[in-house]
Amino acid sequence: MLELHKSYVIDENKRPIAVQIPIAEFEKIEEILENYGLVKFMEEVEEEEPL
Q: Which helix (H) or strand (E) holds 50?
């Protein structure tokens, strides 16, 4: 599993409002999501009738 090194951004009331992660980890997450989307698209196309 992908290890994330996250830092929380908090507001003046010490409530978490955002998370920061290193750009390399963000890019890896993007790659994983794009690959997942491509696989899902390929599965959908396989289910369709050929032209």
A: none
16 pLDDT band (50/70/90 cuts)? very high
- Rg, C-alpha atoms of the chain: 18
Question: What are the residues whose beta carbons fall under 8 Å from the beta carbon of 4, sequence distance 6 or more?
Answer: 21, 25
Q: Are strands 7-10 and 16-20 parallel, antiparallel or unpaired?
A: antiparallel
State the pTM of this model.
0.69
Residues whose CB is less than 8 angstroms from the CB of residue 21 and which lie 6 or more positions away in sequence, other chains included: 4, 5, 6, 7, 29
* Angle in degrees, CA 24, 40, 5, rounded to 5: 20
